[in-house]
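yo

u said u wanted the structure for the complex thing, so here. seqs first:
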Amino acid sequence: MGFHIVKRDICPLWKRCCFYLAAIVAALFIGALVLLAIGVDPLEYYYQMFTMGMVGNRIAYKTVMNYLRDFVPLALTSVALSLAFKMRFWNIGGEGQFIIGSITASAVAFLLGPSLPMWLTVILMCIFAMLAAGLYGLIAGFLKIRFGTNETLMTLMLNYVALYILYFIGETKESWNFFLQEGSLRPVFESFASLGSFPSIPIGDKFQLNICVILTLLIGVGIYVYLKYSKQGYEISVVGDSMGTAHYAGMKVKRIILRTVFLSAALIGLAAAFKVGTVGVLSTSITNDVGWTGIIVAWLAQLSTPMIFVVAALICVLQTGSITAAATFSKVDSSFANMLQGAILFLILAAEFLVRFKIVRVKKGEKTNE
Amino acid sequence: MNKAEVITSFIHNIIVFNIPLLYGTVGEIMVEKSGSLNLGVEGTMAVGAIFGYIVGCYANSLGVGILTAFLAGALCGLLFALLTVSLQANQNITGLTLTTFGLGVYFFVGNGVKATGWPVMGDYSSIQNGFADIDIPLLSDIPIIGKGLFSHNLLVYLGIIIAIAAWWYLKHTAPGLRLRSIGENPAAADSVGINVKLMKYLHICLGCGIMGIGGYYMSLNMSGSFNSSCWINGYGWIAVALVIFANWNPALAIIGTFVFGFFNTLRVSGGSLAAAFPEVFGWLAHIPTQLYQALPFIITAIVLVVTSIKNKRGSSGLPAALGLNYYREER
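structre next:
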């Protein structure tokens, strides 16, 4: 008797869901053990975390608004990254593209905001952020098709170049630097909320629904249709499956790569414009790590656009919830969310093995047909 | 400080503050030569740092600290190997998750211990003494450069020894050759009877263990003061960059560490250089520090492009199968 690992052709959806659910439950269980070990009731903690402390809270609407403010950039960035990943182009540069986008959007608000109506400023912020981030992403795309430069490592380097550009802007007190407050002695980012902010739709008497939420959902639908039903979307998946096939079928592979990388990076730029146009001020931690988390979200969702929204929503619950719970449980640091997120992902990666492969028993001397 | 002292301390700082890069880089070279791209260096170093420091302090022994850091790092490597080698998970995702997870563990454990009483390095004499500078006889007496180059703590020497040993191992031993062949073409290596899985497991764990020691070094160099920013603070990512700069060669990694370290040190000590030599280095005071911080990444990006152009002629150390999982049935 021995064991043999064979690739599965297809795994039924219910089975897949079971595997993933089991992975999440197992991760929560491991988390519970850690919580028990430090003397915290895991049920109470998880309750606080998953409800984000909203039950019996009079300012719950604020929690929802803060939650959506984090959700929009994460969901949009993940969707954007999934475009490139579908083509097997490893855009790890979400952080950098997001930063370039947010710097550009802020610059537009500062320079054009005073002389233009708000609605026009906001539109221009989006357009320029998309252009700048898209071009920044194109650097890696161009090098990839021209010289075969490894895009994973290249986009990784460009993340840090962008980050230090942001630090430079945020830490240099000079007369040309319009990003900073004029009056203060120490370098502090100036707010541009009065120059370029996205409008909100009031729902009920207190809750304000930011228009970015609606736009993000619409873009999500658009990308879903684009990937599933358009010719360009089809080309992306063919290039991702096999460049040789795409070439043989007469597709202009290089053009497809450049176009998709630009679109992917430009959407991340748009996510950045949404973010700065909502919070109204730049900061050195403006990305909130969405470039990194977005990669994980896109992968967890297996690059399916609707699933990305679900996963992004859940990850945001983890992150927002752990911060709320940390206020109640002083023993549990909010970094618990990162650990839990890591554990969930590790176990899902392991579960994915069971989705892609199956373990077959073979008797000695017997041959498998697969 | 007089002018000679400024130069001496500048050289000294290049080495002292940047040796963690060497550990991270040599560790990552080990991992990458087996064909695995581990983007979890930052997380692995953080895990090694926090466990190495705390356990080392409780045991009041530098040796225990080094060993713990190595084991903690190797455990991260084991996790990575289990997922990517045995369970065929995507390496980029696994590595990035390892970083998220590792930083989570770092802050969770660190803040947990801090709540009950943080071990202060100064209270542990044998760690304090073990981390003190050791003069190399004769060489350290050379004026100006002697104290800068040849008077360092034990872990600096250990790092250099590990780098040279790794270079020798990869270049001149039979297992090293086998390892490189796996990184180039695992199917071919498998067909000549090399145990690909075992070799990958071993070297991923070994490499990650070395990164863990680098993290421990970082904690000691910061005198173990724990606050809101991580001890590793991006060094893991610079190490990923340095691997490329060093062309996957551990001996070149030593030089690369000093080149990157030079810019790092200019950021910190550029001001004192400018003050000591206003005519020669006065301009240094006007360069934004962020440029120094970005330079390692800019240089690496350029090196990456140059190597990819050269790669068409086959002179790069980039393992051909880097980042691809090996599944035997698809051979």
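The mean pLDDT of chain A is 86. The longest helix of chain A spans residues 118-147.
cya
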